[in-house]
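Please go through the protein record below and explain what the tokens say about the fold. Record follows.
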Amino acid sequence: MVYQIFPDRFNNGNPHGEIQGRKKDSFIYATKEDSPYYIKDGHGDIARWDFFGGNFEGIRQKIPYLKDLGVTAIYLNSIFQASSNHRYDTQDFMKIDPMLGTEEDFKNLIKDLHKNRIALILDGVFNHVGADSKYFLSAVTDKTVPYYSWFNFINYPTKYQSWWGVTTLPEVNKNNADYQNFICGPDGVLAKWTRMHVDGCRLDVADELPMPLLREIRERLQNEDCHALIGEVWEDASHKFVNSEFRTYMAGDNLTGTMNYPVRNFIVSLLQANNETEEVAAMNDLENLVENYPKAFLENCLNNIGTHDTARIKTVLGGDEQLVALAFGLLFSVPGVPCIYYGDEAGLEGDKDPDNRRYFPWGKESDFLEKEVKELAHWRRENRALVDGKVGYVKIAYGINALVRYNQRELVICCYNKTDQDMILDAGKFQTYCLPEKIGELASDILDQESVAQKAYLLKTFKLDRNEKE
């Protein structure tokens, strides 16, 4: 299980909550319960960035919490020096943001994570930089500097290509050989941080990076014994086109997986479906994804029910923690790696950015949801079919369905009931989808006459013998 942390919002580990590396033209919230809020100028641009002061030491101190939850890897949003709280406006790729700590603090975090068998995935933001970055400031000051060729100027120095027209995020010319070497070279950005024993990299807006650069990034990571490369791709990545170019994400020489947002769409659609037709449509969407993705690629994707770019799952599901628990049950049942956005397991709410980036509610967590996630993480560790098994479905009734995972050794079932009634299941009414006949019959027999409580899920496992597999 991967755990995504937005570093400024997780935990401040300083003795009295001191804020280090304070930034000019910013503010710090008065309490940890404050709701995130943007202060914008008359043009709609952010005039003051807001901070809570989370840092590496705070994460390090919460390793016991993460370990108890069942986390085996953490993915950190960008950590490099920047003006903003999200740090996707990099000022210097070679420096840690001082609010988070020092390089020594970072190394200590990695060391203690690895002691507890927790891997670390960093965010690579290589499509754009901050307008106040050392690179861009140098480029707009002097055309003769090497950094000038990194950017696409339309009318030098005031008009330039930027990410989605956001002028504070000038876009980098990713085809520039000097820039590519800066990122992927033997003394480049990736080499520096992976040599600190970072375990993987998540690429921001991966579909805006040229395929040759993606291949160079993968090659550098492999050279540094760092083998996970997860791309931010919101759609089905198997038939993604960018500017009419087919993106060969699954060729084996670039991404190893994606941030699997289609799984989030499946789970939310299934839990919000108004009838059986909509439920079957959601199941078909997931099955199409399973058919389109190579098995190894799919199993390396980070599945989510929320990230820093989406509304919180509890808010999406109307504040109903029982439905949130069902969402977690489905998340741990589908092919791929479950990835939890910090605080979702604690019952944190929030609409889209910036509200989805609240501070973790330490001392006020949802005991119910945390317990559910711990049990699901244990269930996944104990049942290999949830990692490498095929997937199919048992359609029972509106609001009551089961995901079935199976391999050569075992069959695992997650049956959920989103209705407000306890139900006794009747196999005579079941329909199976995407399952071999014998597996479908066995799953139906296992579920027949089982009781499923209202707004709850039922987990079942069964060891297969040769006759059942055939």
User: Anything to note?
Assistant: Residues 276-292 form the longest helix (17 residues).
